[in-house]
Amino acid sequence: MPVTEHSIAFGPYSAIITTRGGALRELRYEGRDLVVSFGAEGPIPDYRGVICAPWPNRVADGRYSYAGNTFQADINEPERGAALHGLVTETEWELRGKSGQAVTLGCTVEASEAYPSGLELTVTYSLSDDGLRSEVQTVNSGTEAAPYGLCPHPYLVAGPSPLDDWTLELPAEEFMTVSADRLLPEGMQGVEGHEFDFRAPRRLGSVRIDHAFTGIIRGNDGLAAVRLLDPAGTGVELQWDATWPWVQVHTADKPTGTDRLGLAVEPMTCPPDAFNSGTDVIHLHAGESHKAAWTIRALN
After folding, report:
1. What is the rounded CA–CA span in Å between residue 238 and residue 11?
2. Element (H or E) spanning 222, and its range?
3. pLDDT tens for residues 205-259?
4. Are 138 and 183 in contact (CB under 8 A)?
């Protein structure tokens, strides 16, 4: 029976990586969860921890045009009529390398009516004193140029208190407004004076967020981080560099069931429906590659 998940550890950190969607299934620090985990078998709920490529978020109606050709992806979010989170979230990724503190998985995207070229993707998860660093490298293995975008999809956990009691720091000056019914882009709005202004850390409370943010405020090192703190004194942060000009944040609200279990923090190379708007789309030519990395670490 094939091995479908791989455990890595370093110091107080441990992680489980599954071949399902190339996903981060579990990340712990001194035994406490830093992300919302899921079971070892069956479908992955809510896209937890998967790699979203070759586009993040939604493509409206699953349809877009590129280099004079029209492409149609499967509608996997029928209630909103969208192709959600790319083509590899349900792919069985293959083991490409492993050590005690790192693992690399890979998968292939074939050219199809949904996408103009073949891609080879690898994701490497590695633990150190600095937390979990993840890096995706994608190579255009085909003969045609292709549009490309990427995001990870972890749900962060600050500690044992309810999400409403967590303190959020989100270094972003603008967010994308979306339609209420389909969550498709409508425009841009500054966070100044809005309930989404978390540039200064403050309690999340009952605010509901499922939006893409930009105008990212970075330090002198070019890095930015979303930070979450629990009243119990624990916390978690996700840090990324200028490769990612956007970040999607979602408070995991559900009408029923497991509501607000964690905060989805998804650095994105391009915003929702970018294959139609063209905003920040990466044009990956035949033989070219793209790399992007992010780090999740404990705060305490």
Report:
1. 19
2. none
3. 999 999 999 999 999 999 999 999 999 999 999 999 999 999 999 999 987 777 9
4. no
